[in-house]
Design a protein that fits this description.
Distance between the termini: 55 Å
CATH class of the largest domain: Alpha Beta
Radius of gyration: 26 Å
Oligomer: single chain
Shape: globular
Number of helices: 19
Strand content: 15-25%
CATH architecture of the largest domain: Alpha-Beta Barrel
Largest sheet: 6 strands, mixed
CATH superfamily of the largest domain: Queuine tRNA-ribosyltransferase-like
Helix content: 25-40%
Number of domains: 4
Strand order of the largest sheet: 17-21-20-19-16-18
Amino acid sequence: GLHHDLREECARSLAELGYLYHPVGGVVPLMEQYRFDQVIKALLATKRGLPPDRPVHLFGAGHPMFFPLAVLAGADFFDSASYAKFAKQGRILTPWGSQHINELKGEPPWSSVWDRYTLREVREMPEGERTRILALHNLEVSLREMREIRRAIREESIWEYVEMKVRAHPALLSAYRALLGEPETLMPYENSSRRRALFYTGPETLRRPSVRLFRERLRRLGRLGRGAIAVPHGPMPLSKFLPMPEGFPEVMPYSVTPLGPIPVVVEDCYPASQSLFPWPPDRTSAREVEEGIKALVELYGGNAEIADEYEGGEWDLDRLNEEKARAIAVFQFGKEAAEALLDGDLRVVYSRSTGKLRNVYVDGEHVLSLRAADGLYTLKLAGGRRLHRATDPPRFRVIVNEESAPFNAEGRNVFAPFVVDADPGIRPGDEVLVVDEGDNLLAVGRALLSGREMLHFRRGMAVNVKDHVSPRTTKGGR
């Protein structure tokens, strides 16, 4: 039904009963009417009412073209007789829709059925045999779609895959827009970065959680220096293609892209330089750039210059990377945490061949390393100690029980069953502090789950430990 508030309330009640598996029904009429947006809203309402570790079974959604979007909305299992119903009607399922066999002009490429039979042979079969053959085709198409979805999830390209698929039908695109219209449900579980580039496939791309997160972090930076140079649709990374302006860093150059106004000091942070947009820009991209320029002018008042190019000299890599070290820390951890991390005598190490920032030392201690893949920091133990001293629990923390603590202090990864509390603001991919129940620092690492997921999952790794307080025991030790 359409009463999504009741679905959410029902899900909360069922969650309290301790069931391990939760079905979502009542969507068949919606599927038959192609009201996919309402199915997505039903899924999201259910997910809001359930703990994040509970699998969701979507009944009656058997069309492969809907699977990717449903998975993105939180469905884990599907159950439907559509493959047989379509076959009985003489229709085949395709990755993009359905088609009657009398409309086909050749053998479909989506299943092995057509390696054994010609289209003419299938058309001339007795009804029962034809139905069986078409049902086998429909099942194979459904299973192949599931494999494609799993591949896209593993390769971290599920958003691009969904955006490609939803353009097969206007109702799917409407449903995708409905999904993007509920960011509060999606954002807590959004990865801080991804291994793959962000591909712009249309206006909806700019409403993805990853873009929202990037823009939130850009706002942390505030005003940088006394003036700005805004380069509309500027190249990325900006420092590779444009010179250092006179007066840098008090005069800060920005590449204004559809993602927002990106200062040169965070040009390497995902997805600033890990995104691809078509040229010339479409109307939405052009409008976003215009809005970015307006935002810069408002931020800097009369001290913002708009220019396609500007005069300057060769980049001073020492100065550039020192400014990057500070700005990326604010972008990733927030202003107060960044000040704690970098308070002291700052020294940066960068690649002599590429000029890219690599490591950050403060008062002689190695506090941060920059990942080349996404331009974000990996927290070192010395940095973890600084962050730990400067913040109160549970900020940045994953708290483990006494059984797990000694092993994590020796560098073992943190597993979800041993987590007793966690900062609810932790996202997958965030750098975190691993502490015991007395708030003693044990290790630092990268979260693989959100803070909420860590508290509910009963299996799986929660934190990939990168640095730790105790040396590992020798072989034969604990």
